[in-house]
């Protein structure tokens, strides 16, 4: 079914509207087309879109429809018209339009247009999805207010519910319906961009998360699978509620199944590569709640990430990032990592032994990977506090004449110089009467690498706290060579201690500060 769309804008003009609404009917189109005439009217109250669908034909069968758009509510209804030409069942008055609709048995809400009416439901639902995708997509700032009004009206009319319901009805084996799925996802994306708070609403009211999860399990890659991964990443980002919802429907295991397809092979195209990155973004987001970290461990996610790292494919760095999320403040994941021999793989990356490809030749890639590995090792020290696992972890820093301590001090001096340069720059701004508060100064230093420097200092502190004389001697030697002292490390740890947040609750904050105090105290000995 071909669709012709005309979009016209005009300002408030009594001559161009009837009772606050505007209507347009344009007969004479070809039978093989569905002609849609849209007028965008702005008045003192809000922006109204009136969509008038007046002819639909498929093959040799012609069906004529009446269509009404409720003022501001956009309650779409569609019904066969017995007349030769379509008619507009309202004169601009909302009450009269609703009454006319009830007399004709059209009902209210977003129903028949989005659900497809009674004839050729797939074609009609596909046309509606295509239309809404066009209407909700605009980069013009002048149209933003109207788009916000449209988004609100669609939500009020339960359009999201109907759109998601249609996803399960479309058969993507049919190219036209596959395109309709793409348009439907486009509408969802556009509405989320206009109203980010809809992320929680649509997942609470519909089965969108289930549909996306099922779609991502398909083995074959296509554009809709890529789009599904993008939408899921948007829904999970900054939404603890959706992260928990996905975990409750076995989403952690579903995402692991999706990324497992790439444990021993690389994506074939740039689009497929982007989809894989989206999948790992989803996995990292869903690992924010503690209960999902537990699901990750039970589903053998730690083992899968180690396998991906050992295969040294394109997903190598993404696997490290996922492990970092899984192990942060979650000792069971750290213990599993050590038990399944992950230390060797992690410290190979720590020493710079990473797979070579066109992607990781970039300096920014290597630096980001280094920071992830440093964070991962810091999580290991925080999660494994005693026993044989702790001994195995510390033993890595004794191997090959303490080469890993040498590497750690290399990182320490590099990031220390960066933070020092940023501190001097901020001090010069203060002298120029561009003073900033302490929180802003601290955030600027974090961006310059202070957080990574704090983690390096924390690892050094854990090593020193172990009491191993060989490692202590090596640390003192390297500090002297770089004109540093233990007091420099202590200063960094004290700043870290003072800025530990309570995101995980006051009890966890108190425990973290207590452990840091112990390390600081040991450096004084």
Number of strands: 7
Helical run tally: 24
Unreliable stretches (pLDDT < 50, length at least 5) are 1-119
**Which band does the percent of strand residues land in?**
5-15%
Head-to-tail CA distance between termini: 80 Å
Structural class call reads: mainly alpha
Mean pLDDT: 80
The coarse silhouette is: globular
Q: Radius of gyration, Cα only, in angstroms?
A: 30 Å
Main beta sheet: strand number and arrangement? 3 strands, mixed
Portion of residues in helices? 55-70%
Strand arrangement across the biggest beta sheet: 1-2-3
Short description:
It is built from 24 helices and 7 strands.
Could you describe the 3D structure shown?
The protein is mainly alpha-helical and 525 residues long. Strands 1-2-3 form a three-stranded mixed β-sheet, covered by helices on one side. A two-stranded antiparallel ribbon has the order 4-5. It has helices at 94-103, 111-115, 121-135, 144-156, 159-169, 175-194, 198-205, 208-216, 223-236, 240-248, 251-260, 270-286, 290-298, 301-311, 316-327, 331-339, 342-350, 363-383, 387-395, 399-431, 438-465, 469-481, 486-498, 506-523, and strands at 2-10, 33-42, 47-53, 56-58, 61-63, 65-68, 77-80. Strand 6 (65-68) and strand 7 (77-80) form a beta hairpin. The chain starts with a strand and ends with a helix. The model is unreliable at 1-119 (pLDDT under 50). Among the domains are: 1-195, no CATH class; 414-523, no CATH class. The chain is 62% helix and 8% strand. The radius of gyration is 30 Å and the shape is globular. The chain has 24 helices and seven strands. Helix 6 packs parallel to helix 9, helix 12 runs parallel beside helix 15 and helix 16 crosses helix 18.
């Amino acid at each position: 079914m071909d669709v012709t769309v005309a979009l016209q804008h005009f300002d408030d003009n009594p001559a161009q509207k009837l009772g606050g609404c505007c209507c347009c009917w344009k007969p004479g189109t070809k039978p093989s087309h569905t002609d849609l005439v849209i007028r965008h009217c702005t008045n003192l109250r809000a922006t109204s879109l009136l969509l008038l669908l007046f002819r639909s034909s498929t093959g040799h069968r012609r069906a004529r429809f009446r269509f009404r758009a409720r003022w501001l509510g956009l309650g779409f209804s569609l019904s066969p018209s017995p007349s030769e030409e379509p008619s507009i069942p309202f004169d601009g008055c909302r009450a009269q339009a609703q009454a006319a609709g009830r007399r004709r048995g059209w009902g209210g809400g977003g129903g028949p247009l989005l659900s497809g009416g009674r004839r050729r439901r797939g074609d009609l639902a596909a046309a509606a999805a295509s239309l809404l995708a066009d209407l909700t997509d605009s980069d013009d700032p002048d149209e933003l207010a109207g788009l916000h009004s449209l988004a609100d009206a669609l939500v009020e009319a339960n359009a999201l519910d109907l759109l998601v319901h249609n996803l399960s009805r479309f058969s993507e084996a049919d190219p036209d319906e596959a395109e309709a799925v793409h348009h439907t996802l486009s509408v969802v994306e556009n509405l989320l961009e206009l109203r980010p708070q809809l992320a929680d609403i649509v997942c609470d009211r519909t089965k969108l998360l289930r549909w996306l999860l099922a779609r991502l399990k398909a083995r074959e890659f296509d554009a809709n699978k890529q789009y599904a991964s993008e939408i899921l990443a948007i829904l999970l980002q900054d939404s603890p509620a959706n992260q928990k919802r996905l975990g409750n429907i076995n989403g952690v295991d579903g995402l692991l199944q999706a990324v497992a397809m790439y444990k021993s092979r690389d994506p074939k195209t740039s689009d497929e590569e982007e989809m894989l990155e989206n999948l790992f973004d989803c996995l990292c987001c869903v690992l924010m709640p503690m209960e999902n970290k537990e699901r990750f461990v039970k589903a053998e996610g730690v083992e899968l990430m180690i396998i991906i790292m050992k295969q040294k494919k394109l997903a190598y760095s993404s696997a490290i990032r996922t492990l970092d999320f899984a192990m942060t403040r979650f000792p069971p994941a750290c213990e599993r990592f050590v038990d399944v021999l992950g230390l060797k793989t992690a410290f190979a990356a720590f020493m710079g032994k990473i797979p070579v490809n066109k992607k990781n030749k970039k300096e920014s890639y290597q630096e980001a990977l280094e920071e992830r590995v440093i964070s991962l090792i810091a999580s290991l020290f925080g999660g494994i506090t005693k026993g044989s696992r702790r001994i195995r972890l510390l033993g890595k820093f004794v191997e090959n004449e303490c080469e890993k301590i040498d590497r750690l001090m290399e990182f320490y001096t590099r990031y220390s110089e960066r933070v020092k340069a940023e501190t001097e720059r901020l001090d010069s701004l203060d002298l120029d009467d561009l003073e900033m508060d302490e929180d802003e100064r601290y955030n600027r230093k974090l961006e310059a690498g202070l957080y990574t420097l704090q983690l390096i200092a924390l690892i050094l502190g854990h090593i020193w706290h172990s009491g191993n004389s060989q490692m202590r001697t090596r640390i003192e030697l390297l500090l002297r060579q770089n004109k540093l002292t233990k007091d420099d490390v202590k200063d960094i740890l004290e700043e870290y201690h003072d800025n530990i947040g309570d995101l995980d609750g006051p009890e966890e904050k108190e425990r973290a500060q207590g452990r840091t105090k112990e390390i600081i105290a040991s450096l004084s000995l």
